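B., you asked whether I could sanity-check this one before it goes into the benchmark set. Here's the sequence:
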Amino acid sequence: MIFPLFTIATISYNSGKWVRQAIESILSSSYDDFELIISDDCSTDDTWEIIQEYTDHRIRAWRNEQNIGEYPNRNKVLHEARGRFILFI
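And here's what the prediction gave me:
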């Protein structure tokens, strides 16, 4: 398995207003040796629906079954990261 150099990690909770802009910004980069992982913390707005619109192979996303809170969600993302370096957005 080939691992990316960078993991760009994003956690979200009711971020529908900003999540599309964040994803578009990351995907528009000319650098492409990265994975984008997004952990939605059981949002009650349209955040998860927006995330699911993206089919780029560099994106891995999931929605927690229940809200676990910011720091447990950050730790979950760190556990799933495959890149040598991790950037939080």
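One thing to flag: Helices lie at 19-27, 47-52, 70-80. Otherwise nothing jumped out at me.
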